[in-house]
């Protein structure tokens, strides 16, 4: 077979075929036809052993030269095809930097979340510890341990959400329940705050919602008196409303778990410039019966507690007229009132 093969014509024919290859697959097909296990050049090399020594030497040199030349052509054509492929990718994937950038919108912290963070920061700077408690409570923690009498109206179903088929269990009506749970695990002195959802059987309107957020604070230390309560809450109100001259008053009230009890009012100026007193939170000295429920000697340790409706503070500070706005997903409202991260 090698005796009749014209290597010049053979080489030239395959070089033309290589130049006509338009993609990597066709180039690989030719490589296999020439240099594969059953390729033309491979078979010719196997046939050399059947020739005489002189003819084998002559034909072998020509065959090796043809193989080397075609191998080099294969490599050169592969480089060309790779360059062409890269050029095509660059052309098709070109980015027009003159186009305007895609709009990028940064997220914002919800106004309500930001207010809670600010309140926590204020009290934590005063040494308060943040705690949490369950939203599904039993009557003992929600009422009994907090000195609610059995006939108290808050125990009735028209005020409280009781769980069906679970007697004695309810959705907590205040975060004061965390006081009891903490005092059973941790003895005074302590300063704690707890924020969370609470539930009341109210109709949904501009100023009421059956679910809202309450922040509860408790201080229990020897020597604590009502002056500490007034100083702490007066300073908080002035800090929160960013008004160091804000007028704050403490008005007698009644809560089962504090004695004496006080409502805290601020002198508020509305959008019409009219000034009036508005209630912002409830407070009082911890009732001795609450301390006794937690095995604490009320003659040795005294303290004060306070409860804040967070939604009410947000509405007053930012001039909102409808509590439902805090729970709507109106992007325009969120963009306007959202706080930067």
Helix content: 25-40%
Give the tally of β-strands.
Answer: 9
Beta-strand proportion: 15-25%
Label the overall shape.
elongated
CATH class group of the largest domain = Alpha Beta
The total count of helices amounts to 11
| Assigned CATH superfamily of the largest domain | Bira Bifunctional Protein, Domain 2
Identify the CATH architecture of the largest domain: 2-Layer Sandwich
Distance between the termini: 82 Å
Q: What do you see in this structure?
A:
This is Phenylalanine--tRNA ligase alpha subunit. It comes from Candidatus Finniella inopinata. Belongs to the class-II aminoacyl-tRNA synthetase family. Phe-tRNA synthetase alpha subunit type 1 subfamily. The chain is of the alpha+beta class and 341 residues long. It folds into two domains: 7-92; 111-337, Bira Bifunctional Protein, Domain 2 (BirA Bifunctional Protein, domain 2). The protein contains eleven helices and nine strands. The strands form two sheets. A seven-stranded mixed sheet has the order 1-4-5-9-8-7-6, with helices on both faces. Strands 2-3 form a two-stranded antiparallel sheet. Helix 1 (7-19) packs parallel to helix 4 (53-92) and helix 2 runs antiparallel to helix 4. It starts with 6 loop residues before the first helix and ends with a helix. The mean pLDDT is 86.
């Amino acid at each position: 077979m090698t005796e009749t093969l014209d290597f010049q014509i053979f080489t030239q024919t395959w070089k033309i075929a290589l130049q006509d290859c338009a993609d990597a697959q066709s180039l690989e097909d030719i490589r296999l036809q020439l240099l594969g296990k059953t390729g033309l050049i491979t078979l010719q090399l196997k046939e050399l052993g059947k020739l005489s020594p002189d003819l084998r030497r002559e034909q072998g040199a020509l065959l090796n030269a043809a193989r080397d030349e075609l191998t080099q052509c294969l490599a050169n054509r592969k480089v060309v095809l790779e360059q062409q492929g890269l050029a095509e990718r660059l052309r098709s994937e070109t980015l027009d930097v003159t186009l305007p950038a895609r709009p990028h919108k940064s997220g914002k912290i919800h106004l309500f979340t930001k207010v809670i963070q600010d309140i926590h920061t204020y009290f934590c700077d005063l040494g308060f510890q943040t705690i949490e408690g369950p939203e599904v409570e039993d009557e003992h923690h929600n009422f009994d341990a907090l000195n609610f009498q059995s006939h108290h109206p808050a125990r009735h179903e028209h005020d409280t959400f009781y769980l069906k088929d679970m007697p004695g269990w309810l959705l907590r009506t205040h975060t004061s329940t965390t006081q009891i749970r903490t005092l059973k695990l941790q003895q005074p002195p302590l300063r704690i705050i707890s924020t969370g959802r609470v539930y009341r059987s109210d109709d949904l309107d501009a100023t009421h919602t059956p679910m809202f957020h309450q922040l509860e604070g408790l201080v229990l230390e020897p020597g604590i008196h009502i002056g500490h309560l007034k100083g702490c809450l007066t300073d908080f109100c002035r800090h929160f409303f960013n008004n160091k001259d804000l007028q704050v008053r403490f008005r007698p009230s009644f809560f089962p778990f504090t004695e004496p009890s006080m409502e805290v009012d601020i002198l508020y100026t509305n959008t019409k410039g009219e000034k009036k007193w508005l209630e912002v939170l409830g407070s009082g000295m911890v009732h001795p019966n609450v301390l006794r429920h937690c095995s604490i000697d009320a003659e040795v340790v005294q303290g004060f507690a306070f409860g804040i409706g967070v939604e009410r503070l947000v509405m007053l500070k930012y001039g909102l007229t409808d509590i439902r706005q805090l729970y709507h997903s109106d992007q325009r409202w969120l963009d306007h009132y959202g706080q930067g991260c």
